[in-house]
Write a structure and sequence with these properties.
The radius of gyration is 15 Å and the shape is elongated. The chain starts with a helix and ends with a helix. The protein is mainly α and about 90 residues long. Helix 1 (about 1-25) runs antiparallel to helix 2 and helix 2 runs antiparallel to helix 3. It contains 3 helices and no strands.
């Protein structure tokens, strides 16, 4: 059951990223662009989570990579929020 949840989280964040990119392409609002980049990174994060916990053996740990990707994704969103608020 956990595998299905990990896969659905990955697909959900991918759908959000695609919808945000489409909204940015149509409207041109910069905040949509930064949000789309954040969700693209969160998609990678969820994919790494699935690979780490389902595909790879327990001796290999990708938690540092997952945390790094999540940190960069949220940092991109914060950067966009700060610079687009001016």
């Amino acid at each position: 059951m956990a595998e299905a949840v990990y896969a659905l989280c990955t697909l959900t964040s991918l759908a959000c990223a695609v919808l945000l990119f489409n909204g940015y392409r149509r409207g041109g609002a910069k905040l949509l662009f930064w949000s789309a980049l954040c969700f693209a990174g969160l998609t990678v994060n969820n994919l790494l989570l699935f690979i780490d916990l389902v595909v790879l053996p327990t001796t290999i740990d990708l938690s540092i990579w997952r945390s790094g990707v999540a940190l960069v994704s949220v940092a991109v969103l914060i950067y966009g929020l700060v610079w687009e608020s001016n």
